[in-house]
Amino acid sequence: MPKTVLVVAAHADDEVLGCGGTIARHVTEGDAAHVVFLADGVGSRSVGAASASQALRERKNAAAVAHRILGIQSAHHLGFPDNRLDSLPLLDIVKALESILEKLAPDVIYTHHHGDLNVDHRVAHKAVLTACRPQPGQCAREIHAFEVASSTEWNNPVIEPFTPQLYVDITPWLDKKMAALRAYQGEIRAAPHSRSLEHVEALAVHRGMCAGVAAAEAFMTIRMVRQAKKDK
Q1: pLDDT of 181-223, one tens digit each?
Q2: What is the tally of structural domains in the chain?
Q3: Omega before residue 136 within 30° of 0, cis
Q4: Which has the closest alpha carbon to 175: 72, 69, 74?
Q5: Which residues are paired to 36 by β-bridges?
Q6: Residue span of the structural domain in which 122 resides
């Protein structure tokens, strides 16, 4: 039965870095994929108001291109301040997210690892768990946390390491992930930077070899509920 998949990302490009191949696989298998971006992704940069406005338009346009490549049906830009999500009441973020959850009723949610260096990533993780409290009628039966190059591995690994249990084979979809990532050209850095095309592809190969396949994306499973079948 087709599923509704929702990626809750702090910034545009995190969805491709963290689970672009998995999204493309979901779409190929008949699932509907959607994305929510919590922060604007550019507000913390040292640019003027006009430049910031232009940078925001460019990032949204890049997201639209990436999403066409991956087959994402809709993107919701909440526009909270970049790298300042920890300065906002968590309730404000949760309520905005809850309104989208109510509309989409996702079966599967992908979001950030709570141990990332980037504060917006950590808040995104907490907002998802708060909005998806395991109450009767909660739609999301799976919640998985992804890694983001240049954030997950940059934090102190002793504090909260990324220790994946789920590996998704993206071998046939790695080219789509890389094509979608190239749409975010302004966010890509030259090798040997962690957020380079070379490293992202190498990470997919590394995660694949950890699981005995050519390329994979790795996740920490936060929650997975297997429901009983209803009597006919």
Answers
A1: 999 999 999 999 999 999 999 999 999 999 999 999 999 999 9
A2: 1
A3: no
A4: 69
A5: 8, 76
A6: 4-168+218-224
